[in-house]
């Protein structure tokens, strides 16, 4: 069992044992690393997230979970459109920037020549493995997060490449046989 400690601004000593156990269990669940982006009347922003899941293919819908205490939460809600950029194995540094692990300002992140404008002017990461553009069709508050149901309007899939996953609180590259970013 892990002793309580401070992690990303959260004082783990303030969490219940059940919350600590849950967090430790979820750390053992490998998940794709995504940069979720938006642009519109609420502003332009992006976050690194692994809480993305397929819901249905009729109509194509995914869910994205965003912490309601995040500075970007209200921007996503106000804009109503977003893009889920699934990262390839060589994009760990970009994932760190959008996870807030570096001091690079948001505006500078979007100034890099990595982005195209998608539908509704949402930033689309040119070299992402997959680009899922859509509109937030429904939003439900669950605990500390909002579960945003995103009805997809455009799906872009690149050739198979290495993938980036988050597992045991670290980024890991998962190699695709014979393919590289």
Helix content: 10-25%
Class derived from helix and strand content = alpha+beta
| β-strand number | 14
**For the report, how would you describe the main beta sheet?**
7 strands, antiparallel
Overall shape: it is globular
The overall average pLDDT, rounded, is 89
Q: What ranges have pLDDT less than 50 throughout 5 or more consecutive residues?
A: 1-9
Rg result: 16 Å
Strand content: 35-45%
Q: Strand order, main sheet: write it out.
A: 5-4-8-11-12-7-6
Number of helical stretches of at least 4 residues:
4
Give the SSE order as H and E letters.
EEHEEEEEHEHHEEEEEE
**Cα separation of the termini:** 38 Å
Question: Helices, strands, pairings?
Answer:
Layout: E1 6-7, E2 10-11, H1 17-27, E3 31-32, E4 34-38, E5 45-49, E6 52-57, E7 60-67, H2 73-79, E8 81-86, H3 92-98, H4 106-111, E9 115-117, E10 123-125, E11 130-142, E12 145-157, E13 163-167, E14 170-174
Antiparallel strand pairs: 1-2, 3-13, 4-5, 4-8, 6-7, 7-12, 8-11, 9-10, 11-12, 13-14
Task: Describe, in short, the structure shown.
This protein is of the alpha+beta class and 181 residues long. 17% of the residues lie in helices and 43% in strands.
